Amino acid sequence: MPFAGEGSVGMDKEPKGEVIYGDAVDFHLGKTFEVITICSLIEHLANKQQVLKVFKNAYDHLEPDGLIIVQCPHAYDYGAWYDFWHELPFTHHSVKMGLKLAGFMIEKAWTHLRLPKDQWFVRRFGVISIPISSDYVIRLLTGINLARDVVVVGKK
User: 33-112+149-155 has which CATH code?
Assistant: First the structure.
């Protein structure tokens, strides 16, 4: 992982919980959690076997009926390939499949669409975000670069 380690920088200036540094693919913490979030991680892994290991480890670290929330860039969005470190593409269907293979039940899955951040548009309307779950609609909208993030919620 190119960004793992104590030199990593997070977005939360005042974390409300314990911060643990380590390998996301191979970890054993000896405790369980109600919710695990995996944000902007799986697209950086080298292969889908590593993604499955991350999902299975998360499953093992969840309490009964615990939730996992996975977010990553959508494969059809240019942003998925704009970052030099992105290795794997995902849609909400492929993330759902991976979570099911790891033992999760799918609660909800969607692709988040964001309207352009053009200054004229933002000044008048703000940034607008729309959840869409149809791959057909996503393919239509990617021609004008609106598909952004996959979000999938699974339950143990």
Answer: 3.40.50.150
